[in-house]
Amino acid sequence: MNLIQTFKSGQSYMYICPQDKELAFSFPEIKIIKYIKTATKYLPPVIIALLVWQYYMPAQIAVTVITILFAVSLPIQGIFWLGRRAQSPLPLNLIDCYNHIKSQLIEKKILAKENKDKSIGNKLTFEEFMKLLNLAKMHLGSYFAHHDHHSYFDEEKD
Questions:
Q1: 50-66 tens-digit pLDDT
Q2: Were both Cys, which of 64, 94, 110, 114 would link to 90 (CB 3.0–4.6 Å)?
Q3: CA-to-CA distance for 67 and 47, rounded, in angstroms?
């Protein structure tokens, strides 16, 4: 995956991820998305303040430019990390959770059954998992029908 595809994947993954507090403990991307949104909100005033500081204080221009470049790079690094995370394969404990939620959606006739031949070569990714979570939340009212599956999310630590 090249840099542009990774960046685009990270941007789309930002909008796919559910922003629920109960998932933030298990999925670091939810916190990173929050940090990226906060940084993009406050970054323009910080850059303007750095430029004003450069104008009125006898600071070296190189220090100001490096500080501005560093500040701008933080949200970009976060988006690249999200792009890599979106295409990462799911760990085994989340594959079980994915299959359980998917079977509930198939039972409710929200999803159609797939042929096994199509899914043999495909690896499940975090992006597919987040899409399934959004679908489950929309149609089931929760991510899962039984409370005993909350442990799937507690085990995921990155």
A1: 888 888 887 788 888 89
A2: 94
A3: 9
Cβ count near 95 (within 10 Å)? 15
pLDDT of residue 144: 54
Whether residue 36 contacts residue 148, with contact meaning beta carbons closer than 8 Å, is answered with: no
Contacts of 81 (CB under 8 A, 6+ apart): 10, 32
Residues 78 and 99 in one domain: no
Contact of 78 with 30, CB cutoff 8 Å: no
Handedness of CA 37, 84, 158, 13 (dihedral sign): positive
pLDDT along the chain (158 residues), means of 10: 90 92 87 94 92 81 88 94 95 89 85 60 85 86 53 48
Q: Do residue 110 and residue 127 come from a single domain? A: yes
Domain that holds residue 34: 3-86
- Tell me the C-alpha distance between 114 and 116, whole Å: 6
